[in-house]
Amino acid sequence: MENFTIEKMEIKRFNALLVRTIASTLLLGWIAWWIYCIDNNESTWGMSYFNAFVLLIYAAVAWKTSATLEKIKNDKRLAEALDGEIYSVYNYKSLATGFYAALIAGVIVFTFGDCLNLSVHIASLIIIFIAGLSSQIRKLILYKP
């Protein structure tokens, strides 16, 4: 397999991971804001239409990303070239980053949760949001082609 093809697919994979990170960040951020509005009895008029719009965008991005990653997985040469031992180390490092970020976020939410009047829903969403975002950002930093 030519190096040009491998580099081209690695760039496509990086772009797919970047778009997935952005879409998941927006989706989780929107869900946290929506739950916060519901918990504080603020007006949620028109949010159902926006929720549908956000979910459609996320579904389209997830489909496009999975199509790119599935294309790499199905091509035996690309899979061998792009799924080496180094990428499993990258996944391990990004998961460890997400774990430690969740621990730190838990301590911060526990410490400042009463001051900010956060419910259990919002606190858990904040922890999930921070852990997922830090894990994906670490993965992007490590995968940079």
TrEMBL record:
Membrane spanning residue stretches: 17-36, 48-69, 90-112, 118-137
Keywords (A to Z) from UniProt: Membrane, Transmembrane, Transmembrane helix
Superkingdom of the organism of origin: Bacteria
Protein name per its UniProtKB record: Transmembrane protein
Source species: Bacteroides faecis
